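hey so i finaly got around to running the thing on SDR family NAD(P)-dependent oxidoreductase from Amycolatopsis albidoflavus. pasting the sequence first so u can double check i didnt mess up the copy paste, my clipboard has been acting weird all day
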Amino acid sequence: MTEEFAGKVAVITGAGRGMGAEISSRLAQAGASVFAVDLEPASESAPGIVPVPCDVSDPRAVRAAAASVLADAGQIDFLVNGAGLVSVTRPVETISDDDWARLMGVNVNGALHWMREALPGMKARRSGKIVNLSSRAGRTLANFAGAHYSASKAALLGLTRQVALEAAPDNVHVNAIAPGLVETPMLSGSVDERKREAARAATPLRRIGTTSDIAELVLFLLSPKSDYITGATVDINGGDLIL
Ligand SMILES: NC(=O)c1ccc[n+]([C@@H]2O[C@H](COP(=O)([O-])OP(=O)(O)OC[C@H]3O[C@@H](n4cnc5c(N)ncnc54)[C@H](O)[C@@H]3O)[C@@H](O)[C@H]2O)c1
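ok and heres what it spat out for the 3d tokens, dont ask me to read them lol
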């Protein structure tokens, strides 16, 4: 339990596995009440974590899920938009309208839907922190995904900056992080071992990121230690962007 998170209410999307699961469990251990949103929330519930089944790409489902969180907890102090889909690398001319819409629907619209629900209460209370999980793909390009992934993650950065400016007068902080490769089911499901090893060897710090690396940064951005940071994109990639 830590003072900065005790009693706080956090909504984490994409909390069923990977980065979202790690962030949820760290926050719960630190004393926050965590609402763990996912298409497939973890079946075993841990202390302090309430699973919330919800498709973030569906605005009505998000409205209903947010209403249930507010009915249960009264407010939302923290929102982490981590739900995401990746794509396989392929030429842009082969990306169908459906594929494009599916990725945008989760990676961009999902964050928009949850911010729309969380912001009014945060602004009214003049307190709130939002962290959007973008990607290095949104800063430069994706090594292992298509243009729809890069475009969705770049759009999320633009959304983050604009909402940060709007929310700043009400003391609501909105930031994004841009991870390089991180060991999660998303990575192992989309990139084979040989390519992962080549990527590791080419990373200046000579390792792939861990969910722990990511959770440390996100908890910093949710804590009072980051009270003068908003509208930022924080790179976390083992030095990839030096190159
Ligand atoms: N793993 C990486 O190398 C990497 C790098 C940079 C950025 N990211 C981004 O970080 C975030 C977390 O990635 P991860 O590696 O932990 O992914 P992951 O695939 O391991 O976990 C993502 C979670 O999002 C959930 N999800 C997907 N669609 C959803 C929907 N419509 N509604 C609700 N939940 C949904 C999935 O069920 C899953 O539990 C993603 O946005 C991803 O794009 C990942």
